[in-house]
Specification:
The protein is 25% helix and 33% strand. The chain is α+β, with helices and mostly antiparallel strands. It has two domains: 6-235, Rossmann fold; 240-350, OB fold (Dihydrolipoamide Acetyltransferase, E2P) (Beta Barrel). It has a six-stranded mixed beta sheet, sandwiched between helices. Strands 13-17-14-15-16 form a five-stranded antiparallel beta sheet, with no helix packed on it. The chain has a four-stranded antiparallel beta sheet with strand order 2-1-4-5, covered by helices on one side. α3 (109-122) crosses α4 (138-150). It starts with 5 loop residues before the first strand and ends in a 5-residue tail after the last helix.
């Protein structure tokens, strides 16, 4: 028996001459919450529709727990789908919306009542069973859509940007609720989003998709810490792309003509004697200061290169025009399709102990 619950093997889907999915392969464990993340038009929804059976692959196979379902119709794949626009039946009550799939399965009245009541409890919709969709808030309508998709007890739950139409405060609440719900019931879930903060916050794994291809798969932490491609590094988190015309201080051991990507957390900015070791820091001038609540975002000029770093509000405030020390702790180096992390050599040398 396979260890993977969901597998895609070489999926290609074309619409005319346009390839929306190009040789896509990935594997997902049972009960995982996976974020399908990428820019608009990158192929996320096409992959979701292929998994749902709403599109047929031109090449490749889709396997659910060891069974090839590539050409199995959607209604026989045992999946639940939640769309961005909820797609609720407007004339039906909350109870009837949730019960719809169960009636299609010809469940008994007692089974339907039991399952719907169970889902009303799970989705915090108790007391709303007799209301119709227009009497609900956006967050409540989305919970009804989740409950309806879960009613037939699917082996796979597919969510197409489920929180996009909801205001920010309710969206944060629903993210937490979704994470708790998946943990509680153990249903394998894939959700499409272009919101990286949303995906990083709740997903067990990310599938980064661009131009119809899977750029990288892994935990949010592993992808953030070591992106495999320049696209992933620039898409996940904040980065500054630098092509220095001369070696950066502490990084003169890097080959010329390499693209460097630097995250704000790699950059330490302070006044004289705040930065240690000083020999690894370069002189800079503050250009802009932005208040971000718990920290200041500082933009500096270092020998013609603009860098951004974060500074605690507990430290003395910096102002535009201040001369500062700037320590770049590490950078991502991209060359010939390869990526590696390189530390500041002077920082390492300074910290060596000689006997």
């Amino acid at each position: 028996m396979t260890a993977w619950h969901i597998e895609a093997k070489g999926l290609t889907k074309k619409f005319g001459s346009f390839a929306a999915s190009k040789n896509v392969s990935f594997s997902i464990a049972r009960g995982a919450l996976v974020g399908l993340l990428g820019p608009s038009g990158g192929g996320k929804t096409t992959i979701l529709r292929l998994l749902a059976g709403l599109e047929q692959p031109d090449e490749g196979t889709i396997v659910f727990h060891g069974q090839d379902v590539s050409h199995v119709p959607p209604q026989k794949r045992n999946i639940g789908v939640v769309f961005q626009n909820y797609a609720l039946f407007r004339h039906m009550t909350v109870f009837e919306n949730i019960a719809f799939g169960l009636r299609v399965q010809r469940k008994s009245k007692a089974e339907i009542v039991r399952r719907v009541e169970e889902l009303l409890e799970l989705t915090n919709l108790h007391g709303l069973a007799k209301r119709v969709p227009h009497e609900l808030s956006g967050g409540q309508r989305q919970r009804v859509a989740f409950a309806r998709a879960l009613a037939p007890q699917p082996q796979l739950l597919l969510l197409d940007e489920p929180f996009a139409a909801i205001d920010a405060h309710v969206r944060r609440e629903l993210r937490t609720w979704l994470r708790e719900m998946v943990d509680r019931i153990g249903v394998t879930t894939i959700f499409v989003t272009h919101d990286q903060s949303e995906a990083i916050e709740i997903a067990d794994e990310l599938l980064i998709v661009a131009d119809g291809r899977v750029e990288q798969q892994g935990t949010p932490q592993s992808i953030y810490a070591l992106p495999r491609t320049q696209f992933v590094a620039q898409f996940i988190g904040e980065t500054m792309r630098v092509m220095p015309d001369k070696p950066m201080h502490g990084f003169d051991h890097i080959e010329r003509n390499c693209a460097l990507l630097i995250r704000p957390e790699f950059v330490e900015i302070g006044k004289s004697a705040e930065i240690l070791p000083r020999s690894a820091a370069a002189a800079g001038v503050v250009k802009h200061v932005f208040f971000r609540g718990a920290s200041w975002e500082i933009e500096v000029d270092v020998d013609g290169i603009r860098l951004t770093g974060m500074r605690s509000v507990e430290k003395p405030t910096l102002h535009a025009g201040d001369r500062v020390d700037v320590l770049v702790h590490r950078v991502f180096v991209f060359q010939e399709g390869q990526v590696r992390m390189v530390d500041n050599r002077l920082k390492s040398d300074e910290m060596m102990v000689y006997i």
